[in-house]
Design brief:
alpha/beta, Cytosolic phospholipase A2 catalytic domain, eight-stranded mixed β-sheet, 8 strands, globular, Acyl_Trfase/lysoPLipase, Lipid_Hydrolase, PNPLA domain-containing protein, lipid metabolism
Length: 301
């Protein structure tokens, strides 16, 4: 079996766990990151997908993710509350530039590549799920890739997939207004399979969380509490993970306590980032152990 294709779900900080999974599988030669041909991803998954496409040394990438002082790097954007209110959220494109420009420069790549240019350099076919709110009278799921949006800048495409309403600014491209693809399709396995990809060559990482289950609003609830619960339950009502197909090479990354508060704390808490990384490592080790046990059972039949 040779893994050539990836599906990476959204889930905010769970992208660090996804990195831990991939690094562990790569280290143990279950897959080779250099063999990846396409990645289907949503939201935070789109961020980590772009990192994988660059094929940066895994140890270097881990140090960058865990040890970079993100609180200082993001300071000018995350503390501008007035901008969040007047501009429909934080400028996600600028945040992505902070994340990726050093990585692109380390590979001698133009820091503002289009999707087509990025594909020509990496030979990895990236598919980012986004939602267009300007499409007729309904929300429309859009697969953003180098064939459909060849002139779209990479940072804009990632931001379009991860623009959580009221937190991250929507992305405007031509006549479309793009927001977080996780609203409709946080785990794009069906879209990947519909493209004709062989399941034997596919690895999927599915991030799940049980945040705010059974929580309710009362007279003592703050506006923030009200908004967080409304947003989370809206996602759960519309989103389609429950109807996505399960595949043989699928890793469930269950971050049970991944609340929105933890989302906001991850960029400034190195110990939390280490914890999320370790969760991914453990999930990958369990996956490989189960695969070995399955092989032993098959050989004894």
């Amino acid at each position: 079996m040779s893994i050539r294709h990836l599906v990476l779900s959204g889930g905010g900080p769970s992208l660090i766990s996804s990195f831990g999974i991939m690094k562990t599988l790569h280290k143990n030669k279950y897959l080779d990151i250099n063999d990846i041909e396409s990645i289907y991803a949503t939201s935070g998954g789109a961020i980590i997908a772009s990192l994988f496409a660059l094929k940066i040394d895994m140890d270097v990438a881990e140090d960058y993710i865990i040890k970079r002082p993100w609180q200082k790097a993001f300071h000018n954007y995350t503390n501008d509350i007035l901008s969040i209110i007047t501009n429909k959220g934080i400028n996600g494109i600028e945040l992505l530039k902070i994340i990726f420009e050093p990585l692109l420069l380390s590979k001698d790549i133009n820091t503002s590549p289009t999707l087509k240019e990025f594909y020509d350099i990496t030979n990895v076919d990236l598919h980012f799920m986004s939602v267009d709110i300007n499409s007729s009278d309904k929300l429309k799921l859009v697969d953003i890739n180098y064939k459909t949006h060849d002139d779209m800048l990479l940072f804009h495409a990632i931001a379009a997939s991860s623009a959580v309403p009221c937190f991250i600014q929507p992305v405007f491209h031509k006549d479309s207004c793009y927001i977080d693809g996780g609203i409709i399709c946080n785990y794009p396995i069906n879209i990947c399979l519909e493209s004709g990809i062989n399941e034997d060559n596919l690895l999927a990482i599915k991030s799940v969380s049980n945040e705010i289950k059974h929580k309710t609003i009362n007279n003592d609830s703050s506006f923030i509490d009200f908004f967080k619960i409304l947003l989370n339950k809206s996602y759960r009502t519309i989103e389609t993970t429950s109807i996505q197909k399960n595949v043989k090479n699928q890793i469930i990354c269950d971050n049970k306590d991944l609340t929105i508060d933890i989302w906001l704390d991850t960029y400034k808490n190195i110990e939390l980032r280490k914890k999320l990384l370790q969760k991914g490592i453990e999930d990958a080790e369990l996956f490989m152990k189960n695969k070995e046990n399955s092989k032993e059972l098959d050989s004894n039949v």
